Amino acid sequence: MIAPGQCAPRLILAPMEGVLDSVMRDQLTRLGGYERCVTEFVRVSHTILPKRVFYRYAPELAHGGFTLSGVPVYLQLLGSNPELMAANAERAAALGAPGIDLNFGCPAKTVNRSQGGAALLRSPHLIRSICEQVRDRVPHTIPVTAKIRLGYDSDEQFGDILAALAAVSLTEVTIHARTKRQGYRPPAHWHQLRLARAALPFPVIANGELWTPSDIARCADITGCDAFMLARGALCRPDLGAATQAFYRNKPSPAFGWEEAQLLLSAFLAKNCELYDPRYAVNPVKQWLVYLKVYYPQAGALFSRVKRITDPTEMAAALCETASLAQAA
Q1: Does residue 106 carry a catalytic annotation?
Q2: Contacts of 307 (CB under 8 A, 6+ apart)
Q3: What's the pLDDT score for residue 3?
Q4: Domain count, the chain
Q5: Nearest-CA neighbor of 67 among 22, 17, 13?
Q6: Which of 248, 267, 282 is the last residue of a domain?
Q7: What is the pTM of this model?
């Protein structure tokens, strides 16, 4: 039980490459509880990107940079060239991005081999240079944030990374409480975030192993953080944001069960068919089912039924049939 008067947390919906796109952001933010979202990373390598690239990753720019439910969407950049990162950040801001986020945490091998994401954790001076130049080029009315891990192979340079960030007037930093080498293996080392809070002159957002409202409350106790970035937990339990806010207010969580999850799946498929080539709309549904089965056993059974389906019309029929059977039962 949360103590009376304890402030509800600020919740941010994480960027997840190939998963948390604009369709997913729209669906999850409609359920409530989130202060903001962050896009999948926009790769910056050799040039200032054209407008269409920013709109592809953040179609919310057409709506002032907000989801249809009014949640701001920060645009995330990934790269290692300070000048190009700054120029692209300036362009994203000019296009209407409500905030700019800098990715220094992606553990993907293909990204790291090209000196992007978590690879930069080995070069704190380069992290500082990128942050400084981006902050200088982006209007100061627009937040600039960063996302890091505890380190690359180990956390030995964590203090140096924090010192590099502390030298820049960032708005906030999200810290995934594991190293790149640790990947996503439990546990998340939340105690390190209390050290980060003491070292940084701006707020720290906690990330890692946040699956339930109780996890978030325990993380708050250990870290002292009041802001949390939700990733896999939000996919496994779509109402996690709203449920967490209810938990902190000692109120019943809004009703959300497997039946509501099925409706989301059907809407997710329909929207993907509308926005993209329908041939590519089925696999994201299967991918989401893999996450959902962590929280809903019924999702595992449904995945077994539909895993070989490739036609969107057939998938829609299977989702509808399953929903009808559940209602009849």
Answers
A1: yes
A2: 286
A3: 52
A4: 2
A5: 22
A6: 248
A7: 0.95
